[in-house]
Each structure stands twice: as C-alpha cells, then as structure tokens.
Amino acid sequence: MLYETYSNHDCLLKTFDAALQEQQNIVLQAGSLQDPVKGFAESVCKGMQKKPRQLECRFLYDAQGSKLYEKICSQPEYYLTRTEAAILQRYAGEISRKTGSCHLIELGSGSSVKTDYLLSAYQAHYTKICYTPIDISSTALKLAGNAIITKRPDVQVVGIHGTYNDSFQLLSSTSPALVIFLGSTLGNFNEEEEHVFWQDISQHMQKRDYLLLGVDLVKDISILEAAYNDAAGVTAAFTKNYITRMNRELGSSLDLDHIRHVAFFNREKSRMEIFLEFTKAQEILIESLQKTFSVAQGEMLQIEISRKFSLPEVKNNLHSYGLKPIKTYTDDKGWFGLILFQKTNKIV
Ligand code: AVJ
Known about the structure:
Helix content: 25-40%
Bound molecules: N,N,N-trimethyl-histidine
Oligomer: single chain
Strand order of the largest sheet: 1-2-5-4-3-6-7-14-13
Number of helices: 12
Structural class: alpha/beta
Largest sheet: 9 strands, mixed
C-alpha cells in the first residue's frame, strides 16, 4: 500500500483521479490532516470555551483510540457492530443487485471489517470493483487497505486519509457510486451538524448515486446505557484516552486517576451523552497556545453524543435532501437499521 501526502484540495482530486486511472492501491492524505496536533489544540481550546464545555469526538480516534474502539465492538454489551454486521451479511447480495456495479466509497471506514460483506457481494456480481475508504486514522486505513488487497487482489483500493469534508469533492469522479456510512456514526452529529452534512453530501452526489446508511434505533434504556458502560471498562478506557492524547500532544499533564467516564441516555434528546467527569479540580494546559483552563471538581466535559433514531424519522429527513429511500433492512429485534437511498434530482 502506497501512502502519499497532498497539500491542497485541487491536488487531492487530481491525484485521486490519476490513481483511479492507473489502478493504483494507495492512501492519499488530504491537506486538512497535515498538522493534526495544531488542529487538536485549536479544537480543544474552542470546546473549552463553550458552555457547557464540549470537545470534538473525532479526536478520540488516534492509533490507540481506534484500537480501543475495535475492542468496544466485540464487547457483549455493545450490540451495534454485531447487529449491523449480521444485517449486512444477510442483505449484501440484494443491495449489490439493486445498485448495480458502482464505486464503493465509505465515510469513517475504520477497520473496514463489516464492509467486507459488501466487497464480497460486489465482487461476486461485478468485475473491477473500486473501494475508497475515508478515515481520520491513517493507521486504521493502512491496516484495512492492506488486509483488503491481500484478501481481494481484484479490488482496487484508493483510500483517503482525511475528514468527511475532504471526501465530498471526490464524488464528481466516482459516479456511479455507493456512499457507505455505517455504524450509526451519523449519531455523533447534532441536528445542526447533521443538516450541514446532508446538504454537502447531497449536493455532491450525482443523480442515481446510492447511499447506504446504518443507524442505531431507539430501544430500552437499559440496553442503550449498558452498551456505553461495558463491564470490562473498554468504553471508559476509550473515553479517557482523549485525556491521554491531550497529555501527549498538547502537554496538558492531567491526572487521569481523578477523571471518570460517565455515559447516560438523554430521553428528551434521544441520545447517549458521554462525558469525562473531573473528580478533583484540575488545570488543562495547552502548551502551544499558551492557554490554561480551570476545570472545577464535579465538572463534566462532553466528549461525545450518540443519537438514537427511528426509521421513519430518518427516511423523512433525508427525503428533503433529494435522497429517496429504496429499501430498509433491520434485524429481528429491530435494534439497528440499514437504509438504502438513491439520489434524485428533486430537493424537496
Ligand atoms: C463509532 C460513533 C458509532 O456512537 O456508538 C462507541 C462510538 N463511543 N462507544 C457510537 C462509541 C462509545 C460509536 N460510533
């Protein structure tokens, strides 16, 4: 797997097109991630000035965080990955027949393990499959990319080390495409962020392109809360790794023994809310910006939200962005949903 760095948008699209042409297996790094420590420092600084304080969850996924997330996925309480994988396994063939041959482009691909069901189905029906995983973890991308080209030498992998925003421009080159957005990662956006996201993506998708969206559905609170408070403490370690990253990259020197993972379901907002609670007062230092923030004893920093959806709500919402629901797939318990949409001309 080759790995190359590109400094501006123009350059990324051109290089992406060239890699497709030349049938390379490669990961291209988008300009947005070239100074990740600076981006992290600025983001923490901004988040600490909000009331209540909120940090951006995408910084959970450094090399260690991506590894811990994979470990979360195999915890008995964390039903999401397992349930979604079973739906994919069962319906990948049908999905591939519905969309026809297309370029698979996945947002937040991580380990790409679940996507393998789709790759397998598309390979069974079509020749020359191209897969574009997009992720903010270069380690996860390289590992996933190498695993795929080894297992499936006929699949071309052109990965993007970047953010969702970097991916939109690529949609001009990938049609007919299936945009894949799994794992209920959508739930990390609040309503406002979600609106901007669908606006951007629907504007860039070409007519008749498809979208496969995985969403976690509202269910019994005890099941939801258990999934984010696993008994082995892996989710707690994942959340606390945020502080480990701050200590390492920002020079924050925080005492992890007095910081606690807290996660509960907010019924009104239909979302899990995940916090780090400071059990003693501490100062957060951001060395490069010469800033410190005092955190009081008992204060909670919001690290992540994970919204829980209903299928009609999601389908209605996306319809207003010109994304027409084609078919919905769920598991027997109705815990998780996969919806296949197609881009139409009409923005309702
Ligand atoms: C990767 C966003 C789908 O919200 O369930 C898991 C992240 N955080 N446990 C989720 C997560 C804590 C996960 N997503």
